[in-house]
Automatic annotation (TrEMBL):
Domain Sulfotransferase: from-to ranges: 63-319
EC number: 2.8.2.-
Ranges in coiled-coil conformation: none
GO molecular function, one term: sulfotransferase activity
Annotated InterPro entries: P-loop_NTPase, Sulfotransferase_dom
Protein's UniProt name: Sulfotransferase
Domain of life according to the entry: Eukaryota
Amino acid sequence: MSSTSVDYLRDELLTQETIDLISSLPKVKGWLVSEVCQFQGYWYTQAILQGLLLCQKRFEAKDSDIILVTNPKSGTTWLKALVFALLNRHKFPVPSSGNHPLLVTNPHLLVPFLEGVYYESPDFDFLGLPTPRLMNTHIPYPSLPESVKSSSCKIVYCCRNPKDMFVSLWHFGKKLAPKETADYPIEKAVEAFCEGKFIGGPFWDHILEYWYASRENPDKVMFVTYEDLKKQTGVEIKRIAEFLGCGFIEEGQVEEIVKLCSFESLSNLEVNREGKLPNGIETKSFFRKGEIGGWRDTLSESLAAEIDRTIEDKFQDSGLKFSS
């Protein structure tokens, strides 16, 4: 796939303000893109940086908003499907007669990606979304729009074992990387990941800022893990429902939501096998394996150990543990 076929890998839509800012920022050569730049402590593609800037300036959160947050490739697609189905279980009951939105529409089109929307469609009408507005973002906690932090909106953060997160992003990127970075060695990618100089990195700061926010303000920020969602999906759905104030949810409803949103169900739908998003990404790119511990198929022992050392160093005093 060429570097101009996916919107967030190109720079045709950059404003002069963003171009001027980028010229003053630290930059490193990248892999998914040829270059990433550092802003407010994190590394971004130029397009996503512009989306972030516009989001910070324009987005006004409502107290009723629900914002799903992840690091890239940490269960974003699945979390969107689960929470969309949960919030809309009365409007779109499950099991359905085949007309449930998730059966015919990719989750990314049902739950807007804040910084992506602001890059691709800066005049998108967020006020037109039904209440409660459901959105997602990869924005680090300190860089969220001020209205998000000051309002009573709810944040659900999903964290994934960093080794699985890296491997998922590695394979995702192999499908999208432009020709000039397609041969980027995985050893260099792991090195950049562990140095924090990776798209969305440093991963440890991103995770820990939401982790601490969830402990300091548990009524506003809920922290869940991809691994718990996989091992006990129904239990976690009920926790999320309680956190969001969704009211009582019947056990049968939980089971049907779990079934509807399972990896097997979503990945086999035509819309997720044959479709494309408006930015050119094939929907099948978001469904690889969805496994816990899938990193073992890709990482050598030495590369896994390199990430483990980084995890041990960065998370040792946090109280946060990763299951594998």
